Amino acid sequence: KPVFPSQVMEAIASVLQKSHPPEGRLLIVDDDPQVLDIIRTLLEPWGFTLTLLDDPRQFWDTLEKSAPDMLILDVEMPNFSGIDLCQVVRNEPRWSNLPILCLSAHTDAQTVQQVFAVGADDYVNKPIFGPELVARVLCRLERSQITRKLANIDPLTGIYNRRKSLQDITRLLHLAERQGKSFYFAVLDLDHFKQINDQYGHDIGDQVLSELGKLFKQSFRDEDVVARWGGEEFVIGLYGITSKNALKRLNNLLETVSQLQFSGINHPTFSITFSAGIAEYPKDGHDVQMLYRAADAALYQAKAAGRNQIFL
Ligand code: GH3
Ligand code: MG
Ligand code: MG
Ligand code: MG
Ligand code: MG
């Protein structure tokens, strides 16, 4: 009995009560083009980016190129079975967290157990029951997106953490190289923050960090990198702008920050400043590590020169 996508969508949407399904890229490998067609019909309406492959020998290339958020693998295929592919993927640390769903016409205990033994996360029987496949894919992608988001966010400030900023900066550096664009990397360190903690308490210190983190994030474009590097240190990555503008943006931010009034409990209001060093790609370095070192050296100079200033 055919299942129409609109019916599937309605059915699943009412169950999950989701107005925004998770986004994602899926790689689907099945030697039967008819099955690929059915899966396309089921998943396309959800807005996923689909890569369909009927030859498992091209799997590795396709995996690298399509960089999927989830894999759907048929178990019974010539040359390489879904079990083989699953094993290979799990042996590669880069793909160790990639959600994998296996499809098989075999429902015997041995097949099902083997699927999970080689590292698959889920299993769906053939012939495919449309709503089941859709529901399993949606839930799996949503779970992994929540996990990924949590892993990238600094809990105190709610902005990105060092881990995520390293990924984003690396991506922007590749882009800057390919497109011949500029990239500026700034390290910001709050001035005399130990005194703030000593004077007003650690909780107030935390509040200051949280407010400043959010302000930093708001003060730049979506394509810029803004992250808490650790402690009272933040990093900002600016893509495709002039050195003059990079400096201006950071000086504007410093101006805004220094005019903020914070209030401690039973204390008069206080204000805070930061110092920053900026490094320029590729002049000061080609990778994050070199750029960080250069920016940190400039930061040190800014501190030594009296704080509350930015050195490029
Ligand atoms: P400088 O101007 O030289 O940077 O002086 P500073 O006092 O800011 O520098 P220092 O590196 O000596 O101290 C940083 C302080 O930041 C010490 C630490 O207690 C505080 N700090 C780091 N992380 C946190 C945090 O998550 N919450 C709070 N409240 N304080 C933090
Ligand atoms: Mg097959
Ligand atoms: Mg510091
Ligand atoms: Mg310090
Ligand atoms: Mg400091």
Automatic annotation (TrEMBL):
<feature type="modified residue" description="4-aspartylphosphate">
    <location>
        <position position="74"/>
    </location>
</feature>
<feature type="domain" description="Response regulatory">
    <location>
        <begin position="25"/>
        <end position="141"/>
    </location>
</feature>
<feature type="domain" description="GGDEF">
    <location>
        <begin position="181"/>
        <end position="312"/>
    </location>
</feature>
<protein>
    <submittedName>
        <fullName>Response regulator</fullName>
    </submittedName>
</protein>
